[in-house]
Design goal:
single chain, 10 helices, alpha/beta, Alpha-Beta Plaits, Aminopeptidase
Length: 393
């Protein structure tokens, strides 16, 4: 059953909201225009709106037409990327160097559409919380909302999130049992050797040579220490050392990221990196220091709640269009912090082909407006399922 008709009036309104948001992207904790627009719309729908959580976060509450013991939350992220948009359509970014290249404009529009419909059709029992979160892109806005008492202030029992997924066919969903997105850790390795003349390398300890050895050696952790049935990634993404042709520098640095689907794998990667940095540098007569920082945990669905999401998606599009065995992603998602606090699930909605530069974080990306109604309908159906009215009351 489609509560919000495809290409109906509300769908067209969601498209207008989405394109306006796309044209005015705002990055982490600077989503002032976006938050104001969201808050104004939610207020006009008749919801009780709270602003200022995690600076620019917006939370709105709605009670069903029947009392109920449970409160569930639906979350959308609002922030854009530091990315120069290369599209030329009318709604392309008006802010140089900023772009909605991950579809958060679409996520926000879908949740606003669901909020409008549910405010007009309160066919549920209990309470509903709409979370419009800032700073998902690398700044852990979800963590900050949790730290500011999100779940306690609004008495939330379970939380759900949804992300568009290029490469997954339009009209399809993907629901995972267990891991959906990887953890993200970042690191900096400082190698301190002994600078010298480039023509007399025997007079010093070359940190650049050691850095080269480390780049290769660190890959053996994944290929030879980690269980082949587990998943992990170590990527060196930056290398810095020296600024002259004829000088062996005194130090060099390597930086990068680690990804995993479990804390056990995170621990293994970090411990082995520390051992290799210390031992290899020492073997060359240098000193190695590893600064390892855990940024986002793994996004892991609660099985009971993922089953519920699959059931709801099946009812909307049919089980043949609900992927249950799609590989999880090594990308990271700060919704993981919310799932560490409360049970719930994080699902993907198909955005269509990723060809031609239409993948996430690409300067030619654009959210597929055709799926706005479907995404909003998923939220409505999920609410009616989880907060079903008891006919005996």
């Amino acid at each position: 059953m489609s509560f919000i008709p495809t290409e109906g009036e509300l769908h067209q309104t969601m498209r207008q909201w989405r394109r306006d948001l796309h044209a005015h992207p705002e990055t982490a904790f600077e989503e002032h225009r976006t938050a104001a627009k969201v808050a104004d719309l939610l207020t006009s729908f008749g919801l009780d709106v709270t602003t200022g959580i995690a600076e620019t976060g917006v939370v709105a509450t709605l009670k069903g037409k029947q009392e109920g013991p449970n409160t569930i939350a639906l979350r959308a992220d609002m922030d854009a990327l530091h990315l120069e948009e290369l599209n030329a359509f009318d709604h392309c970014s008006k802010h140089k160097g900023k772009m909605h290249g991950c579809g958060h404009d679409g996520h926000t529009a879908m949740l606003l559409g669901a909020a409008k419909y549910l405010a007009e059709h309160r066919d549920f029992a209990g309470s509903l919380v709409f979370i419009f979160q800032p700073a998902e892109e690398g700044e852990a806005g979800a963590k900050r909302m949790c730290e500011e008492g999100l779940f306690e202030r609004f008495n939330i029992d379970a939380v759900y999130g949804m992300h568009n997924w290029p490469g997954l066919e339009e009209g399809h969903f993907a629901v995972h049992d267990g891991p959906v997105m990887a953890s993200m850790d970042v690191f900096d390795i400082k190698i301190t050797g002994k600078g010298c003349h480039a023509g007399m390398p025997h007079m010093g300890v070359d940190p650049v040579v050691i850095a080269g050895q480390l780049i290769t050696s660190l890959q053996s952790i994944v290929s030879r220490v980690l269980n082949p049935l587990a998943s992990g990634v170590i990527s060196i993404t930056k290398m810095q050392g020296g600024d002259a042709y004829n000088v062996v520098p005194d130090s060099a640095t390597l930086s990068g990221t680690c990804r995993a689907f479990s804390k056990q794998t995170q621990n293994l990667l970090e411990a082995n990196m520390r051992q290799q940095v210390e031992n290899l540098c020492q073997a060359y007569g240098a000193v190695g220091e590893l600064d390892y920082r855990r940024v986002y945990p793994s996004t892991i669905n609660d099985k009971e709640h993922s089953e519920t999401c699959a059931l709801v998606a099946n009812s909307l599009v049919g089980s043949e269009k609900v992927e249950r065995n799609l590989d999880p992603s090594m990308g990271a998602e700060d919704f993981a912090f919310m799932l560490e606090q409360k049970p719930g699930a994080y699902i993907w909605i198909g955005n269509g082909s990723a060809e031609g530069g239409r993948g996430l974080h690409n300067p030619y990306y654009d959210f597929n407006d055709k799926v706005l109604a479907l995404g909003a309908n998923f939220w409505v159906k999920l609410v009616q399922h989880k907060l079903a009215i008891n006919s005996e009351r």
